[in-house]
Write a structure and sequence with these properties.
heterodimer, A: 242 residues, mainly alpha, 77% helix, B: 244 residues, Rossmann fold, four-stranded antiparallel sheet, 10 strands
Chain lengths: 242, 244
């Protein structure tokens, strides 16, 4: 599993696509946070990274599938999956190795955004008047969100040989999981189960974690969500054995 | 008994890819699997390497059942798949190191150097796999199969794409390896069977039509050429004297 982890990570970073994806993410967040008047921190006037944490999930909806799309689809297409599956490796080894590798890559993409935190820290009226607790909570929320989206991305990657299909379906599923349920719960005829529906959606749990207090219910939600999609992926991979 | 297959069947929907085949393979010999395209050679190999399960029947490799002890089976085999799938963006040494790490080898460096020398990859060892010719990629495929020094080697068309010089070298390597291991290889090339196989199995449409030593097979068919025996047994419409 560890060898797969290292190989996936180094394989990702040897291609220029990786750097393009990371640069695009930094560029878009940079534009939203410091340039565009609607969401810019400088115009908003408050020392907080709320803008960043509001748009980050929507960027993740595109970023994470871009990272995970080749994880399994490419192996199946090139036939190298046969190479791995005939080694003394269990399907879980392969899957968890790839999952952790994708998660690490998502975290590495997130790492440079700490510069925004330090910038606001320095720029505040009194130095350091940013709500650090909320920022930490929000970063944890983003990591948990990243892990949930990664598990979705891995699932769609295992469904198809085609990376583009894997990407598109993952984007759709991530979007639906994040804000689709909120939209459904606002349908009048479903008012009875409205709170249940918002509870299934990721957004509510993400907002809850972002407040800076880590409720175990939210943690369990994210971990179960991730586990569910990993289980689905393992089932798909194991389908060759039916 | 290194490989023991009993009454193996594999059905895809309505089609029987393999229909009740049974055979044995021992160490110290090379078993050649011959058959027309679609006969079931690669399917048999995929079942032996635990990639796909059989519909019925048993396959034992080194005493381990391919269905229930698949992890143990995979620790004892080296497999060169049909299309030699490789990670084209990795380097030769990097690929071998990766496979070595997966197989949890000790003394990986020494083993890699050994295998590179045996497969004649010395000059190409620092190149990306995507930059190698088909023949050298085939050699890398073979190298990763023998890297963990497995007791059983399952090679699907090992000399496919090699030039005559490379073919001779690889055949010599396989012959050498077979002294201590069980080698099963599949091929279309009759000269290959002549050159390295002691035992031959001919498969047609999922059934075994011949299972004998090479000399035994020849004497049973009045010493015809292997090509003619093959055609006779696998029922081609081409006249025998049209064969080159």
């Amino acid at each position: 599993m560890i060898s797969i982890l290292f190989k996936e990570i180094s394989g990702f970073f040897t291609s220029w696509v990786a750097y393009l994806i990371m640069a695009a993410f930094m560029l878009v967040t940079g534009l939203f946070l410091w340039v565009f008047p609607d969401s810019s921190i400088l115009d908003y006037g408050y020392a907080g990274l709320d803008s960043f944490f509001n748009i980050a999930p929507y960027l993740f909806i595109f970023l994470v599938p871009a990272i995970t799309m080749r994880a399994i689809a490419e192996e199946k297409k090139d036939g190298t999956f046969e190479l791995l599956a005939t080694r003394p490796l269990s399907d879980w080894d392969i899957l968890i190795g790839k999952f952790l590798a994708c998660l690490v890559i998502v975290l590495l993409t997130l790492l440079p955004t700490l510069i925004y935190y330090f910038s606001i820290y320095q720029l505040g009226i009194t130095r350091g008047n940013i709500d650090t607790g909320a920022v930490i909570g929000s970063y944890i929320g983003l990591v948990l969100l990243g892990s949930a989206f990664t598990s979705i991305g891995l699932f769609t990657s295992s469904l198809s040989n085609n990376q583009i299909i894997a990407f598109t379906v993952a984007v759709f599923l991530c979007f639906f999981a994040f804000s689709g349920f909120d939209s459904i719960s606002s349908i009048i005829s479903l008012q009875g189960i409205a709170s249940f529906l918002t509870g299934i959606g990721i957004n509510q749990h993400y907002q809850s974690v972002s407040r800076g207090v880590l409720d175990t219910r939210d943690l369990i939600y994210f971990l179960s969500f991730t586990a569910l999609f990993l289980l689905l992926s393992k089932t798909i991979l194991g389908a060759r054995k039916w | 008994m290194s490989i023991e297959v009993a009454d193996l069947c594999k059905t895809y929907g309505n089609q029987k890819a393999i229909d009740g085949i049974s055979f044995k393979a021992l160490p110290g010999s090379v078993l050649g699997f011959l058959g027309p395209n679609g006969a079931g050679k690669s399917t048999t190999m995929k079942i032996l390497t635990c990639f796909i399960p059989q519909t019925s029947g048993t396959a034992h490799i080194c005493g381990f059942d391919a269905r229930t002890d698949s992890m143990e089976v995979r620790r004892h085999i080296g497999y060169l798949p049909e299309h030699n799938p490789l990670y084209l963006d990795m380097y030769v040494r990097e690929t071998l190191a990766y496979i070595g790490a997966i197989q949890k080898l000790d003394q990986t460096e020494k083993r890699i150097n050994d295998v590179i020398e045996r497969c004649g990859l010395g000059d190409e060892q620092n190149k990306k796999l995507g930059a190698l010719s088909k023949g050298y990629r085939q050699r890398v495929g073979l190298a990763q199969a023998i890297l963990a020094d497995p007791k059983v080697l399952i090679l699907d068309e090992p000399t496919s794409g090699l030039d005559p010089n490379q073919v001779i070298a690889i055949r010599a390597l396989i012959k050498d390896l077979s002294k201590t291991k069980t080698v099963v290889l599949s091929t279309h090339i009759m000269q290959e069977v002549d050159a390295i196989c002691e035992n031959v199995i001919i498969i047609n449409k999922g059934k075994i039509v011949a299972d004998d030593t090479l000399t035994g097979l020849r004497s049973k068919h009045s010493n015809k050429s292997l090509e003619n025996i093959f055609i006779e047994l696998t029922g081609s419409d081409v006249q025998q004297d049209e064969i080159i």
